[in-house]
Amino acid sequence: MTRLGITRLGMTRPGATRSGLNRRRSAGPGRARLGLTGVALAAALLAGGCGTIPTEPAVALRVGYDTLDGTLPVWPARGGLATDPQATAAVAKAVDEWRSPVNDRVHLPTSGILWLGELDGARLAVVAADVPGESASWLLQLTADGDRFTVDRAVEYTEPGYLVYSDVLPLQLPSGRRYLVSARVDRLLGPNRDPLPVTDGLTGPVPVPSCAAVTVTARLRPSESLPNGKAAERLLDLGTGTPGPRYPLIGDDTGSGSRALAGLDTCGLGARTGPFGSIAHRVHDKASPESVPASWPIDRVATRTLGEVDLDGAGTPARLDELTWRTDEGMMTAAVIRPAGGPPAVSAADRVEPLQLYVVPLARPVVVLTWKNTTDSSLVPPPDTVRRVDRPGLAVLDKPATRATFTLIAPDKTTQRSVSPN
Asked: Which intervals of the chain are annotated as region Disordered (predicted)?
């Protein structure tokens, strides 16, 4: 996801940073002034006795995208139908009619058709869609039915900024996972570390499992922003079972995410009770369950081992880990218990707090509390609390039958966290 020095519409992307543009920015004063001008013009026309108000002509959806790395077009037009005016007009119409889960529309002048052609006996279009209402970028897949195109898959790019600053885009087709790559990609390695054949920017079907994370690695050729290229741009694909609008590719340059997610069911992680899907995105202070969850990962997935816990009283320890990852709303965490002879169990997400509290859904659910241990901090549990694990910075106990509140007392702050039986 390297985006150094790429120019878009006269703006140059800053250096090696992922912060870039704010994904939740407002529409901005420029659009507000434009709207007022339109109202004033309409009033003037009516006052002058004009019988009709002229309408703006339809704006065509560009083919390719106006991103440059020096003089290199990063996303040139690809596909056998990219120069077909009837096909491009039909795609533009379908994209103009599409709406996001919160009913925002695509801004066609700042969007583009990345690929348009025949694939597997059908006509396919891939569009990078700019949705200014949410300051979001969407990857749209469209297929043709006769002369019309329809959006049949839409995923929201989770990283703040523009989708087209990425170099590898995931497609989900009847034949399986494929990747569309930018002109900066010199080679793409699949999950088995084998080079993937690329034709006109598009790979063939790639063996990606439904509910497990696998690594794909891009080698980027030298360019103005990367004078020496980049040997390994690592990405984690969370699996073909990842439902839209969740974006299935996350950054993993260090490889920590691959290690952290090994053996975990990514479909379960993305469920509404799992860590990646448990905190809903909110729009106007209301939960938007059809949007990408606020807890959906961008990158920096990692894990650390907290210790062992005896779950059955038989002396068979299970490993207790803490999972961390970066989201659009900051770092989040979860607890993972890996029994010696069974599937792992994972809590819901918790935002970073002085006192982390997780409920792990085992046959007998347990509560895990972690905090930064210092000589002058102490955890105060409810009276008569029996702890399975009691050590500095970590407590594990059975989930209480009634509401319980735990207090972390530190010199500068007192933090309380509560857990309910339901």
From this structure: 1-28
Boundaries of every domain in the chain: 1-14+64-253
Q: Which amino acid is at 301?
A: V
Condensed to tens digits (0 to 9), the pLDDT of residues 366-402 reads 999 999 988 899 999 999 898 999 999 999 999 999 9
Residue range 77-97, pLDDT digits in tens: 999 999 999 999 999 999 999
The C-alpha atoms of residue 209 and residue 238 are separated, in whole angstroms, by: 9
Distance CA 52, CA 35 (A): 19
Q: Which of 232, 347, 251, 349 is nearest to 300 (CA)?
A: 251
Candidates 167, 169, 166, 165; CA nearest to 154 is 169
Residue 413 burial (CB count, 10 A) = 10
Q: How many residues does the chain have?
A: 422
Beta strands 387-391 and 394-398 are antiparallel
Whether the bond between 248 and the residue before it is cis, its omega within 30 degrees of 0, is no
Judge contact between 74 and 164, C-beta under 8 A.
yes
